[in-house]
Amino acid sequence: MALLELRNVTRRFGDFTAVDCVNLSIEAGELFTLLGPSGCGKTTLLRMIAGFDVPDSGQILLDGKDIANTPPEKRPIHTVFQSYALFPHMTVADNVAFPLKMSGKAPDEIKKRVEQALAEVQLSRFAHRFPHELSGGQKQRVAFARGLINRPRLLLMDEPLGALDAKLREDMQRELINLQKEVGITFVFVTHSQDEALALSQRIAVMNQGRVEQIGEPSVIYGQPANRFIADFIGKINLMEAQVTQVSGQDMTLEADKLGTTTLPLKQGVNVGDKGVIAIRPEQISVHAPDKQAELPHAHSGKVLDFLYVGDVTTYIVELDCGIHMEALLANSAPGRARFFEVGDPVIVSWTREAAQFLLN
Amino acid sequence: MKRSNLTLWLAASLVYIFLYIPLIIVVVYSFNDSRLNAEWVGFTLDWYYKLFQNEEMLLAARNSLIIAVSASLLATTLGTMAGLAIHRFRLKFLPVLAFTPVAMPEILLGVSLLLFFLQVLNLTLGMFSIIIAHATFCIGFVAIIVRARLQGMDESIFEAARDLGATPWQTFRLITLPLILPAVVAGALMSFTLSIDDFVITFFTKGVGEPILPIQIYTMIKIAVTPEVNAISTLLMLLTLVLIILANRLDAGMLQGDKKS
Predict the structure, then answer these.
(1) Distance CA B251, CA B261 (A)
(2) Cα(A55)–Cα(A11) distance, integer angstroms
(3) Beta-strand pair A203-208/A31-35
(4) B21 located within any domain
(5) A342 within 8 A of A304, measured Cβ to Cβ
């Protein structure tokens, strides 16, 4: 049995459907992420799991028991808020002790477990400080320690790393994953940041307009997006409008607006006449000097319009002869070759059959 | 730049002088060794001594204190609840309902309370009716102060408490109340100062019988402004001043205060 299961959960605010018939199941010990743009309903869903909001219909099952109407204090589910929500009038130690006090643990045990919890997040020295005397990263760790100390079945995290700067965020991501391995508690993240979702999760549910669009491992979500929205939302991708003109054996023939005719491996459920996009990730596109055209599959000539050098990689924007702009990502790993092409250089771009995907609209 | 600064200072000084000269005169004459508020004769504490011999005045002061303490306790309790409700439920009519008595002309409030007590409740006017009347106009002040404090706070703190296992009552007792306490105390002090020197509403709701301080002072000056009145006024001023300063400091925000401790 799944640890947490959502069945047809729906929540409306007036005419607006914030969460639309969501079905999800989260296994014990998982790192699960609800990912989506702001307003997609992920926060509303989180609030219903935590108990701050009640679904209009549907069930929220924890260990098979419906908890949709159980008040938050009766759920073995704790939340780490985006703002951390530390109690400003309590010291770090009192903040961390709060869940234990509420569950009526003995003072001796509380003292021991608080010391242990603070040691685990390297905050023992700060036990008697107040929240406003801590840095963002320290507050974050206090919030984790407080959320985990009473060993909830589920720890919810709302944009857990949103308020931290980039360098600190990477450190915290690793810390979080290690922490989760140690404590073995199921983590559910809510974020609009695809980087965070890809880095932190074992599975991701991508949400849009109140619905779950796809659930899968990060590599599946990134590599085989279920539709155009997901492809566009997660990472960068080149999209070209196209229509299926022929289906035969293992192949399907597509007619793309400017690109012309392309043949791709047949995708299940695709019929002649279907409209969609051909999607190719920038790192799947190779860029060559113009003398090699003959041997390359799916080759198109064009010229370099612009490039963006960011150290480890360079993104080239290539204008194909047919007028389409494509982004290609080249690693700068070859020594002494920070840049392969200059603006205006004629080039050939190509991709393999497997790199291009056809996504229905 | 410099010049406009000077003008500003001058204008401000004039305003403050205009505001405080009458008060200063009262204080000065309360120590004047003469029956007449005309010229300075010499320093004396006689008037304060006489004041404390005046049974009627002492009784009035005692009554006023009882009323002020009771009314401010009542107003603080109800006003805090109103402030919390206004903040939590965000209903448009709630703030209007709580704050109207604050803006209402006192004379109107006095008349309507008098009618309400006599016609509707059939109450004998006295200390009790004054307490209710004072609490009525103080509730709004407390609600405004408490609500202002709540508005500056991160809402998720209260949700975090529930989330981590606190019942609604525990959340109030352990999180909400300690955080709004400075505003609650400030509201209580404010109510006390409003109640102790209120004349108009007291006048309408006191009935006959118990002497009340502001009314008593008014009765005394019907004949002449005696130095005794100056003395009681000075004491009342001092009390009010201390409470206002205290309320101000508390309401200035506990978070900054916390940092120092």
Answers:
(1) 17
(2) 5
(3) parallel
(4) no
(5) yes
pLDDT given at position A292 = 62
CA distance A212 to chain B (A): 25
Q: Do A88 and B258 touch (CB under 8 A)?
A: yes
Name the pTM for this structure. Answer: 0.79
Question: Domain of B91: which CATH number?
Answer: 1.10.3720.10
Confidence of residue B252 (pLDDT cuts 50, 70, 90): low
- Identify which of B163, B166, B255 has the shortest CB distance to residue A50: B163
For residue B235, which phi and psi values (nearest 5 degrees)? Answer: -65, -45
What pLDDT digit, counting tens, does each position of A289-298 carry? 887 656 777 8
Mutate to test the interface with B, among A89, A144, A150 (most CBs of B within 10 A): A89
Give me the mean pLDDT over the A53-78 stretch.
93
Residues of B in contact with A132 (CB under 8 A): 255, 258-259
To the nearest whole angstrom, how far is the Cα of A193 from the nearest Cα of chain B? 21
Which of B156, B163, B179 is the mutation pick for testing A, counting most A CBs within 10 A?
B163
Task: Tell me the residue type at A338.
Answer: A
A130 at interface of B, judged by CB pairs closer than 8 A? yes
Q: Which domains does chain A have, with CATH numbers?
A: 4-230 (3.40.50.300), 236-360 (2.40.50.100)
Per-residue pLDDT, B210? 81
Give the integer Cα–Cα distance in Å for A85 and B171: 13
> Can you give the pLDDT at residue B227?
80
Residue A266 has pLDDT above 80, yes or no: yes
Q: Provide the residue range defining the domain that includes B94.
A: 54-260
Give the total number of structural domains in chain B: 1
